[in-house]
Every structure is written in C-alpha cells, then in structure tokens.
Amino acid sequence: MAERLPTWVWVGAAALASVAGMVNVVGFLGFQQQAVTHLTGNTSLLAAALVTGDAGVALGLAAMLVAFVAGAMLSGLLVQDSTLRLGRRYGVALSIESLMLLASIPLFRGQHLGGPILAAMACGLQNAMATTYSGALVRTSHVSGMFTDLGIMIGHALRGLPLGRRRLALCALVICFFFFGGVVGAVLFAKIRYATLYLPAALTGGAGLGYFAYRQLAVRRPGLP
To answer: Which stretches of the chain drop beneath a pLDDT of 50?
Structure first.
C-alpha cells in the first residue's frame, strides 16, 4: 500500500480485534465451549453432529452459523460497501453490535442458546463492516487470514520481493490485539464470568461514538488523516 493508512483505520482495527478476542474467549470458556467469532470450527462440528445424530448440538451450531451470516447481511444493508472509507455508517453498525453484546449477557448467564447466537450475529456484523482498505484485507473477528497474509509476505521477503510494510504492520496489529483481547477476556471471565462481555460492548459502543465524532471533525478538516 503506497498511501498512509488513516489513523481511524489503525485505531478501529486494534479496538475491534481486541473485542473479537474477548468475545471468542467467552464463547470457549462459557457453557457451550464453542467459537463465536468465526465459522470454520463450528462448521466442522456441525458436520460431525449430523453424522452422530446429535440433533440438539446440530441445531445450535446451525443457528450460530445462520446468525453470523445474518449479522454480515445486516452490515451489508447498513454500510453498503466492501471497502473502508470515511463517511459510511460504521457508527450505526458498531452501536448495534454493542446492543447485541449487551443483550447476550443475561442469555449467557441463563445458559440460553440465544446468548451465543446474539454474540455470533454481533461478530458477523463486525467482520463484514469492511473487506479491504487499499488492497489489505481487514478482518477483525478472526486471524486466519492475517496469519496467511503474514506468511505470504515473509515468503515474498525471502525471495527478495518488495515487502508491503504497512500491510505487514496491519496484520501484526490485528493478530496482537486479538490475542491481547483473548488474554483480557480469559482473566476477566475467571473473575466475573459473563459480565466480561460488558467490556467489548462498551468498546464497540465507544468506537461507534468515536467514529461519529471523527467523521464530523473530518468534514470540517478535510486534510485529517
């Protein structure tokens, strides 16, 4: 990427990656012990549940897959673009994600399937808010793609090809903050259980308000990064 990434992209990627890390750890440590922020493992578990005839587990997993897709669909309706750009309705999407996470807390506490379903929908919404920025994939709800990009760039560097330093930095940022969010989530879950989700809910809500404020400032100061 030849151009400099705007400040709001760096801050947003770090904040949302940490949110996903926290939510996913709660999913793993919670009553279902399943991933929330990505679908690969849950799709495999669904296949296994269908083969073994475990209808209850299969239904729950299928509901989480549908919820994630529904969240992504909602993002498509709100943002209406696959490329990060200032002016899109990210603030609205983030606010809705925050409300979904808040609503999931009492359901998680009651060991109701609605908890992980709402959390999965929130993560689908978050992950679909943007696909690329200047050619760099921006996926904040899981890090498989970031690790893949990291490996590709290391391979290119070993062959003496130009290294996209900003793209490399973006991958490292998302991976590190996803891990950091997981650590924070695990520490909090051991102490306050599902109340841990209040933190990612606050972060997404705060990020939504912060984006709105930054957008208004950028309108007044067009040269703002």
So the answer is: 1-3, 133-135
